[in-house]
């Protein structure tokens, strides 16, 4: 935990320098960028228009190239925390087998995915190593091999995992990881299944 | 020429058949790509995209459209009908259209204004499905790009409108949007990353952009057709869960301007070959 905090401080410090460099770039009127996006997608149905403009957090992150200054980082973190919803019974772990299927699936919300044939997937393998069996994994995020085992399957870390999947920015402002819960990409039950995939002693992640 | 064409046709057909099987896996694509790369080393003519460049050349020269004229009066920036080296200086500002255009936007404009084709029809389904050949506009773009093969990207971006478009492209490259919070930069602004097993080029870094941007339009082994740069951007927007971006939209041209400018000085080796 302490190591993680230090790592975070180091990376934030590193990022701050990049942000200073980024600020010398020519400014683009946000209204102009919005207009260019809107006219580029003339076939988009009205209910897709919000997808062309990020919410406040995405605007903040884009403006700072994902390296927000400290005060803003705090705002983003607090804003993210406020979005997280928990299951009414407080049980954060579901079925890891369903979680594994969700981690494999990249299905959902692409314009070829309508009307939906399946539930949305979490696509975790696109960015993370999770199990020894699956060798086709991406490297945009850290390896999650033995995620629960390393953390001694603790309750506190189960909540951290749930929160991470629900809204990654609650612990890492401007994370590149999608906000699966906050963006309604995955349901609470699906997030529970994914939390079990990471935290259950029976899960292949921890074998 | 005809012998080469025939041989290429056979090759392309066999590949389509092999790839049409549903179980066609990623590893097989890699093997196929490796096979092609080796063939291209032995014989640079073995890229199936050259068939489309040939088709594009015919389409460029033939009188077509409601006005029955050829594209030989189309000005790609170096004067009407001048194709050689034109691609290397695109995107650029065109006073007649009062717009900055990349190669596809410019060909589209010429097909509309000179030949009388209906723009709405040309942009309706501009990209081929898997296995189908690149559309006419894409074939023409492949031909035009191939005539800058061996040159370096040298678009100047010194006109105020060009500068504006470039800044917009950079802004959009880092703009996070959609239900996955992706920006182009999410996947293309770091070294050595991959999504599943697909390597992700660091496109905002000149050294890496120079290696890959000059290969477009490219024959894509996994979908067995030529994919143009506008199509590539369309496909990445699809991954971002955004709607269908219009061919030659200001946003897609701006993004391409940004990519090309980042790749400035890099070699053009179009049409290239991609996984």
Topology:
The complex is a heterodimer of chains A (207) and B (275).
Chain A: H1 2-22, H2 30-40, H3 56-63, H4 70-81, H5 96-104, H6 124-127, H7 147-150, H8 155-166, H9 188-199
Helix pairs in contact in A: 5-9, 8-9
Chain B: H1 2-20, H2 26-42, H3 49-61, E1 92-94, E2 99-101, H4 103-113, H5 119-122, H6 136-146, H7 160-173, H8 184-188, E3 194-195, E4 198-199, H9 206-212, E5 218-220, E6 225-227, H10 229-239, H11 250-262, E7 272-274
Parallel strand pairs in B: 5-7
Antiparallel strand pairs in B: 1-2, 3-4, 5-6
How far from one another are the termini of chain A? 22 Å
CATH architecture of the largest domain in chain B: Orthogonal Bundle
Q: In CATH's first tier, which class of the largest domain in chain B applies?
A: Mainly Alpha
CATH superfamily label of the largest domain in chain B = Cytochrome c-like domain
Structure annotation, total helices of chain B = 11
CA gyration radius of chain A, whole angstroms: 18 Å
DSSP strand (E) fraction of chain A? under 5%
Number of domains of chain B: 2
**How many separate domains of chain A?**
2
Query: For the report, how would you describe the main beta sheet of chain A?
Result: none
The gross shape of chain A turns out to be globular
Overall structural class of chain A, as computed from helix and strand content, comes to mainly alpha
Low-confidence spans of chain A: pLDDT under 50, at least 5 residues?
Answer: 1-24
Helix content of chain A: 40-55%
CATH homologous superfamily placement of the largest domain in chain A: Cytochrome c-like domain
Number of strands of chain B: 7
Seen as an oligomer or otherwise, the chain set is: heterodimer
Return the CATH topology of the largest domain in chain A: Cytochrome Bc1 Complex, Chain D, domain 2
Coarse shape of chain B: globular
Give the H and E element order of chain A. HHHHHHHHH
Q: Which CATH first-tier class of the largest domain in chain A would you pick?
A: Mainly Alpha
